[in-house]
Amino acid sequence: MSHVPELAVKNLHVAVEGKEILKGLSLEVRKGEIHALMGPNGSGKSTLANTLMGYPRYEVTSGEILFKGKSVLEMEADERSRAGLFMAFQYPVAIPGVSVANFLRTALNARRAVQDANGTGAMPVGKGIPPKEFRALLREKMALLHMDESVAGRYLNDGFSGGEKKRAEILQMAILKPEIAILDETDSGLDIDALRVVAEGVNALVGPDLGVLIITHYQRILNYVKPHFVHVMVDGQIQISGGPELALKLESLGYDWLREGKEVTTP
Ligand SMILES: Nc1ncnc2c1ncn2[C@@H]1O[C@H](COP(=O)(O)OP(=O)(O)OP(=O)(O)O)[C@@H](O)[C@H]1O
Ligand SMILES: [Mg+2]
Predict the structure, then answer these.
(1) Tally of CB atoms within 10 A around 164
(2) What is the pLDDT of residue 122?
(3) pLDDT digits over 80-119, tens only?
(4) Is the pLDDT of residue 54 over 90?
(5) Nearest CA to ligand 1 atom 30
């Protein structure tokens, strides 16, 4: 594959409230690829995800983030999202007063408006998705994720259980059809059936038009959503990358062997 990677992170340094968290991280994700990002608590995985999405607290002190060949560093979070970058949050927040359906319709219309401007959308410029078409789309995707239809009318994440929130995140991804999706611990807090449903939902979306970065602590979800690459982050950098076997090795050995390796190589 020689085309420009949809997501290219180059020697990224990021500080949060003056403290350096990411210390020279490089990573490329192409459409059609599934990458898993693992690593101990506090190593900077969510910091990377939040920085990719453009949250203002995360200050890029050096390095570059390219999406489809263009720097996103000057783009606001919503602009990145409309362009086709998506993130499912580790801790989704409630939006009281905004129903799931309204939230998704607004987000979809915003995303499609950008696609139309680029000449890739299926909609006449300036028109939102027709309500009937949207309801059908929503129904289809909710069925895919085994979600009860009544959820569509509830306020987003308001009073949702942990597992319901994670499902709502994947529903959003299914509706928005991003080009690159970052899933930050989408598997955490899911019961075994919910994990399978969510993983199948992700698998149904995976294909040549989508690249995925799955942040996880557990090999379990990788049994369902099979990664092509596994990266391990330690102390703000990717310490080692490999294939799916690397996740299995971590499952049995933990992270100590990596940290020990680091001590040997650090002067
Ligand atoms: N807003 C913030 N203010 C201060 N420190 C922060 C902030 N955000 C992140 N950090 C620090 O950055 C480090 C990396 O945090 P991050 O959330 O990226 O880790 P993580 O790899 O996602 O961990 P986990 O596996 O527990 O989710 C931590 O030491 C954390 O305390
Ligand atoms: Mg995290």
Answers:
(1) 17
(2) 55
(3) 999 999 999 888 889 999 999 999 999 999 999 887 777 6
(4) yes
(5) 42
**Confidence category of residue 2, pLDDT binned at 50, 70, 90:** low
The pLDDT of residue 262 is 53
List pLDDT tens digits, range 164-176.
999 999 999 999 9
Q: Which residues of the chain form beta strands (DSSP E)?
A: 7-16, 19-29, 34-38, 58-67, 70-71, 85-88, 95-99, 155-156, 180-184, 211-215, 229-234, 237-242
Q: What is the pTM of this model?
A: 0.91
For residue 159, the CA-to-ligand 2 centroid distance in Å is 22
Other Cβ atoms closer than 10 A to 129: 16
Nearest bound ligand to CA 48? Answer: 1
Q: Which superfamily does CATH assign the domain made up of 90-177 to?
A: P-loop containing nucleotide triphosphate hydrolases (3.40.50.300)
Does 1-86+202-212+221-267 match 90-177 in CATH topology?
Answer: yes
Structural domain spans, the chain: 1-86+202-212+221-267, 90-177
**CATH dotted code for 1-86+202-212+221-267:** 3.40.50.300
Angle, helices 100-117/162-176, rounded to nearest 10 degrees: 30
Q: Which atom of ligand 1 is nearest to the CA of 236?
A: 14
CB distance 42 to ligand 1 below 6 Å? yes
Residues with CB under 5 A from ligand 2 (ion): 45-46, 90
